Amino acid sequence: xxxxxxxxxxxxxxxxxxxxxxxxxxxxxxxxxxxxxxxxxxxxxxxxxxxxxxxxxxxxxxxxxxxxxxxxxxxxxxxxxxxxxxxxxxxxxxxxxxxxxxxxxxxxxxxxxxxxxxxxxxxxxxxxxxxxxxxxxxxxxxxxxxxxxxxxxxxxxxxxxxxxxxxxxxxxxxxxxxxxxxxxxxxxxxxxxxxxxxxxxxxxxxxxxxxxxxxxx
Length: 217
Description:
Layout: H1 5-33, E1 67-74, H2 82-98, E2 102-109, H3 112-120, E3 126-134, E4 152-159, E5 166-172, H4 194-210
Parallel strand pairs: 1-2, 1-3
Antiparallel strand pairs: 3-4, 4-5
Helix pairs in contact: 2-4
């Protein structure tokens, strides 16, 4: 007996519905077990450019300590004036200061023994002591009393700290010519002190040389 068309049509629809239901159930199960897709990976943010560290200025090197030098003079009350000694003192101090390596100072009038004692009492200070004396080469040109400055020489000693022993000593004679061969006024003049000024600078230069310090330009 053959099935009726209505029954066959119903069976086909029922079979089709079952297939569709199975496909839907399978698809839903597969999707439920799948992990959600990861979001697209964004590129790492570009780090901000760090500012260069501030340039540290190198610390200034400490300058070498200056050498203390005290300048003292003794007056020969018979043969010279304190004005001449102060002239030598002033120019000597100026020359020592120009070196940049000396810390000069003045003590004023001081006899030789006290100058030695001052050096012994200090741990770092040299004491430069000087006295003006008549130049023996011109002894026939002056008599008793005050001697004109152009006929004076510088006798000096520089005493070392702690020991009081002489670091350097000598006589400085006035010169007839100065730097560059230019004549120095003073010789033959009763009022000139230029020769003593140059002699004071020369004494300072000798002190610098004895201490190993370059002469100022």
